[in-house]
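Quick one before lunch.
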Amino acid sequence: MRLRIFTTLFLVTSAQFAWGQTSGSAKLATAEATASEPSADSYAVLGATPEQEALVRAQIRVMQPGVYPLRVLFVPHWKYIHAARTFHLRVPAGYTSKLFTHLPSRSVFIDRDRYVSDDSLGYWVAHELGHLAANNVSESDADKAARNYRKRLNDARKRAVH
Ligand SMILES: [Zn+2]
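Model of the zinc ion complex:
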C-alpha cells in the first residue's frame, strides 16, 4: 500500500517536472484537462482509505464545482511537506496548511495526518476547489468561489439531519 502510494506520487511529481521544464507544458496540462471533461467522477482519489475516498467524492459531488480536480491525493505529513517544497508553495502559516492545490495539474493535496474532521475537510476542500474555479492562487478569489460550494455542503448537511 505504502509502496503503491509512493510510486503514484513519484509519477505525479515526475510529470510536474516534465511539464515545468518544457515550453509545451501548458499545452500538455490543457490536453489532460480537456480529456477529462465533463465527467464529474472521473478524477482520481489516491492514498485515501475507502471511507475517506467515499467522503471526499460525496462532498465534491454536493459542491458541484465549476472546475473539477484531476486528482485528490491523501498523503502522509512528510510527503505533504515534501510536495509543497517541490512545488515551491508559499503556504501561509495557519492557512490551508492541511491542503493545497497545484493548479497546472489540478491536483489537490490533503495532509491525511492533520485534517481534523469530516466537516473541516469539506470546508477546506471547498477552498481548494475555489482555487481551481478561479484558476489562480489568490486566497480571496478562492474563498469567494468557495462560498457557493460551502453553502451547498451546509444545505446537504441540514437535509441529512432533518
Ligand atoms: Zn488557498
